[in-house]
Backbone:
């Protein structure tokens, strides 16, 4: 706890009665955090979908992604993926955080699927909405006739050496997103391996803490527990399991003034979340 900057919690644990720490299998952590786990400790996620709408539509309803109609026009087509929102309710430590965001997908070509990875880094404070919108991740990602496979992974970086390494991700080259070609790209495999290796190395280092980790398969129709592929924003909220069981997207809305997902009464939600957008790849993107 001290290594990741949670000094108050470490002090409270050290000051707790000795019988709590006597349980060597848990070191008292399960007792200490019972009922008061931090937002970044949860592994459960709830997913939502915000359809594309005109600016004059006002409040927009958010739907479970398994209950929307798939966009069949995207079958065997190309799509763009953008990072549109990153909400930091609370990450480990204190002060301004450096967040590594790893995005991976399968680029499905007629000759076979190839893995595509893209890393980006942001600085953020707790209880803040990171200043990003329509941040390009994959441009022209090929979708097959069955589904699109996506994975998103965030790491809170506090190791000084890793912070220096990640400074390279702020370059203009990385800020343009990964543009995918019509045919297989031999250079994409080592690039993907490099991106994966960077993320795994950073996530396993001293002081660095993985936070959100999701995997999504977006299809064109299937089980209700699945998720459909359509044009709009997919939202992933990191919540405790007991909150998941009572979650109802009817209680939340998009505040169009600031572009934030909030409660119906306008108050911000107290959980970490991010949203990525899916849009059709068109002629206007060919030179992007």
Residues:
């Amino acid at each position: 706890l001290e290594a990741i900057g949670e000094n108050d919690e470490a002090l409270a644990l050290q000051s707790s009665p000795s019988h709590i720490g006597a349980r060597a299998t848990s070191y008292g952590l399960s007792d200490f955090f019972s009922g008061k786990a931090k937002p970044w400790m949860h592994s459960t996620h709830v997913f939502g979908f915000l359809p594309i709408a005109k600016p004059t539509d006002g409040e927009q309803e958010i739907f479970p992604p398994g209950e929307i109609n798939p966009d069949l026009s995207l079958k065997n087509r190309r799509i763009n993926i953008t990072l549109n929102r990153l909400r930091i309710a609370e990450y480990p430590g204190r002060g301004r955080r450096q967040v590594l965001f790893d995005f991976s997908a399968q680029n499905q070509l007629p000759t076979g699927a190839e893995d595509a990875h893209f890393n980006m880094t942001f600085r953020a404070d707790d209880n803040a909405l990171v200043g990003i919108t329509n941040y390009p991740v994959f441009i022209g990602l090929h979708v097959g006739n069955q589904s699109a496979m996506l994975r998103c992974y965030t790491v809170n970086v506090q190791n000084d050496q890793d912070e220096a390494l990640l400074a390279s991700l702020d370059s203009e080259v990385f800020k343009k997103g990964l543009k995918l070609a019509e045919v297989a790209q031999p250079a994409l495999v080592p690039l993907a391996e490099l991106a994966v290796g960077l993320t795994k190395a950073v996530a396993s280092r001293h002081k660095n803490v993985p936070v959100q980790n999701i995997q999504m398969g977006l299809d064109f129709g299937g089980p209700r527990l699945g998720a459909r592929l359509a044009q709009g924003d997919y939202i992933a909220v990191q919540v405790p399991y007991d909150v998941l069981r009572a979650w109802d997207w009817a209680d939340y809305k998009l505040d169009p003034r600031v572009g934030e997902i909030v409660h119906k009464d306008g108050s911000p939600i107290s959980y970490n979340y991010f949203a990525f957008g899916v849009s059709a790849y068109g002629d206007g993107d060919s030179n992007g």
Summary: Residues 193 and 253 are 38 Å apart (CA to CA). The first strand starts at residue 45 and ends at 51. Residues 188-204 form the longest helix (17 residues).
